[in-house]
Structures are given as structure tokens and as C-alpha cells.
């Protein structure tokens, strides 16, 4: 049965397999479940828009099934399996009319529209893959990174060898090798630079346009593994979140922490900044969707969503500044009481006679 047509600002995936639409104006959320219903085996691991107009949503599940949800129709419209490799989806993207998927074993594939068709392209990015992301300006370029699997930039049209392969930083002060664990990455707009966050608390900036393969900026934030990364408007800062619930805005020019966002109580799983407004949305293990202001770090919205959350996606085509009037709410208890009293027959109240006072003799 199709869900009622509603406007949702944020789409969130949960470990239970539910896709949740959240209306921030009304603080409302709806559970939208496809296929065989809620199941931890079908937990949502990745979300992506299927087209620039944001008319269809790609939902990747742990069993490597890929579903298509239509916000306009309020229901799932298609589903397919993406076999090959091992592990959950760690990246989804779109290349023209094709879909790009990546799984934890390192297999990145490009799928055509025909479900029975073999993948159009594939590349092997190496085991222990944690994240695959596309360059928004050049969708045929993707970046990959994982545990002991450093940053690589690939051209999906020529997937034989990476265009860029990052080199590990120099040994530490004890002359020991520094372990590699890239957890998330983003392409900076207007350049070839790529920023990553690691499971060892580092934020690193790479510039493939230069001969240097090591990071041009290497900053450490906190002591917990960094799990998510997002880009605010512009290309001078980055927002990172950790497995302990620490979220900070870091300046990419001077490598310092600009501000720390407050109010978190669990590990962060997903971050995304609005491309035009100074806002960042986050979800995580504490079951809350939060929306913070970037200029002062204040909390603007907070919605409890009942499940452990894994990823999120913003509907950036909506007018987020418009305030809609809440629907008139009727007090059901009062209505029910009025109907009950109207149905009862009136009973005349007996008149009590006055007590005569005994007159004294």
C-alpha cells in the first residue's frame, strides 16, 4: 500500500531495514519498508539519488539488494540484486542511466538498466574497502579507501589502473609504520583535491594535481576513530564525526579546529551538509537525527527515530527556509466525550423537600 504523499527533508536508513522520511518543519517521521519487511539482514547501508532532479532514491541493503523508492508515489517501485564480491555496500552512485556500486571486498561495478545484464564495467579496489564516492563534477571519477587500503582515484571509463594512488605518511617518531585506515572521503569542488578521515583520528588532504602523493595536510582530531565526513559550502573546511560522538568543523587551510558541535551521545554514522545553507545533518547509534548550524555550532532540530541509524540523504531541492503551517489538531478525547454525553437521555433531577424546623414550645 502506498504511503501518503508527504514532503520529507531528510531520508534516513536504519539497521532494521527501514527507510525513514523526516519532515523537519513538523518534526514528523514515517517508516517506509519495501520487500519482505523489516529485517536486520536487510539493514540499509547506503543511500543515493538516482537522478539530479531527486525524483527517485536508491536504497542499498546488507543483502546487496538495491531498491528504488519514489518519493512522489510514496512507495518502492523496483528492486534488483547486485551479486559479486563480499560484504555490504560501502558506496552507491549514478553514471548516466547506470548505477555504480561498491562492496567491502573491494569490487566496484557499473550496472545497466537491464537486471539480467552483466555489469558494464568493474574494477577491484582492494580488500577492506570502507568507502567509495564519486566526484560530483566528474561522475566518471571515483575515490576509494579502506583499512590498509589507501586512497585511490579511478576513472570508470578506464578501470585497469588508478589515476592516483596515495602514498602513506612517513614513519612516526619511533620509526614505526603508520597504519592506514581511510573511513570516508570527499572530492573538493573546483579542484582535484580529495579529503579523507581515518580510523586513527586523522584528517588528510591530497592533491593529485601535484607530484606529491603524500597528504599536503595531515591533522589529528580526538582519540576515537573518525567515521564520517562532509563538506560545508565552499572548499575551506570539513565536518568530521567520530565513533564516540565527537563532531567538529576543521579548517583545511590552517589545519585547526574551528568549532565543536555539541549534543551527541553516540557514534556518528552519517553526515551531510546542505549545499547552500550553513547546516549539517547527522545520524548515528543514539537514534537521533540532528541538524546543527555551522556558523555557531548550535542545534537547530532534533528528531528521535527509534532505530539505530546508518546513513542519511538530504532533499536539497526543497525550500528549507519555508515554514509550513501545522495541520489543525482535534482533541479526540473531548470529541468522544461530547458525543457520549449527547447520546445520553436527560434524567430529571428529583426535588428535595425542605426540612421543617421543629418549633419550640
Textual characterization of the structure:
This protein has 361 residues and is mainly beta. 3% of the residues lie in helices and 42% in strands. It has one helix and 28 strands. It has one helix at residues 332-343, and strands at residues 10-14, 19-23, 28-32, 44-49, 57-61, 65-70, 75-81, 89-95, 98-103, 107-111, 121-124, 129-134, 141-146, 149-155, 164-165, 182-187, 194-198, 202-206, 217-220, 226-230, 237-242, 247-251, 257-261, 268-273, 279-284, 288-293, 299-304, 309-314. The strands form seven sheets. The chain has a four-stranded antiparallel β-sheet, with no helix packed on it. Strands 4-5-6-7 form a four-stranded antiparallel β-sheet, with no helix packed on it. Strands 8-9-10-11 form a four-stranded antiparallel β-sheet, with no helix packed on it. Strand 26 (288-293) and strand 27 (299-304) form a beta hairpin. The chain is globular, with a radius of gyration of 27 Å. Mean pLDDT is 88; it is low at 327-344.
Provide key terms for this protein:
361 residues, globular, four-stranded antiparallel sheet, 1 helix, 28 strands, single chain, 42% strand
Amino acid at each position: 500500500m502506498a504511503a501518503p504523499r508527504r514532503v520529507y527533508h531528510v531520508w534516513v536508513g536504519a539497521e532494521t531495514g527501514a527507510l525513514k522520511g523526516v519532515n523537519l518543519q513538523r518534526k514528523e517521521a514515517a517508516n517506509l519498508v519495501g520487500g519482505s519487511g523489516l529485517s536486520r539482514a536487510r539493514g540499509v547501508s547506503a543511500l543515493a539519488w538516482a537522478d539530479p532532479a531527486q525524483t527517485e532514491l536508491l536504497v542499498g541493503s546488507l543483502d546487496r539488494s538495491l531498491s528504488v523508492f519514489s518519493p512522489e508515489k510514496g512507495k518502492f517501485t523496483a528492486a534488483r540484486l547486485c551479486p559479486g564480491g563480499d560484504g555490504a555496500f560501502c558506496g552507491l552512485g549514478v553514471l548516466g542511466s547506470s548505477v555504480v556500486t561498491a562492496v567491502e571486498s573491494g569490487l566496484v561495478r557499473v550496472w545497466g538498466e537491464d537486471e539480467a545484464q552483466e555489469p558494464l564495467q568493474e574494477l577491484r579496489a582492494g580488500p577492506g574497502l570502507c568507502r567509495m564516492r564519486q566526484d560530483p563534477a566528474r561522475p566518471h571519477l571515483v575515490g576509494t579507501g579502506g583499512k590498509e587500503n589507501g586512497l585511490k582515484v579511478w576513472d570508470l571509463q578506464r578501470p585497469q589502473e588508478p589515476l592516483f594512488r596515495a602514498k602513506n605518511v612517513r614513519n612516526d617518531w619511533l620509526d614505526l609504520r603508520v597504519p592506514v585506515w581511510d573511513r570516508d572521503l570527499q572530492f573538493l569542488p573546483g579542484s582535484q583535491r580529495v579529503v579523507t578521515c581515518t580510523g586513527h583520528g586523522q584528517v588528510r588532504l591530497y592533491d593529485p594535481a601535484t607530484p606529491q602523493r603524500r597528504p599536503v595536510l595531515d591533522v589529528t582530531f580526538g582519540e576515537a576513530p573518525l567515521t564520517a565526513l562532509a563538506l560545508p559550502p565552499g572548499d575551506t573546511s570539513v565536518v568530521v564525526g567520530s565513533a564516540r560522538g565527537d563532531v567538529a568543523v576543521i579548517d583545511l587551510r590552517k589545519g585547526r579546529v574551528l568549532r565543536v558541535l555539541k549534543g551527541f551521545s553516540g557514534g556518528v554514522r552519517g553526515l551531510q551538509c546542505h549545499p547552500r545553507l550553513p547546516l549539517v545533518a547527522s545520524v548515528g547509534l543514539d537514534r537521533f537525527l540532528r541538524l546543527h548550524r555551522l556558523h555557531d555550532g548550535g542545534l537547530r532540530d532534533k528528531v528521535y527515530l527509534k532505530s539505530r541509524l546508518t546513513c542519511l540523504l538530504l532533499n536539497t531541492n526543497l525550500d528549507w527556509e519555508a515554514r509550513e503551517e501545522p495541520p489543525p489538531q482535534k482533541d479526540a478525547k473531548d470529541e468522544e466525550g461530547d458525543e457520549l454525553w449527547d447520546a445520553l437521555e436527560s434524567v430529571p433531577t428529583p426535588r428535595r423537600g425542605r426540612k421543617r424546623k421543629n418549633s419550640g414550645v
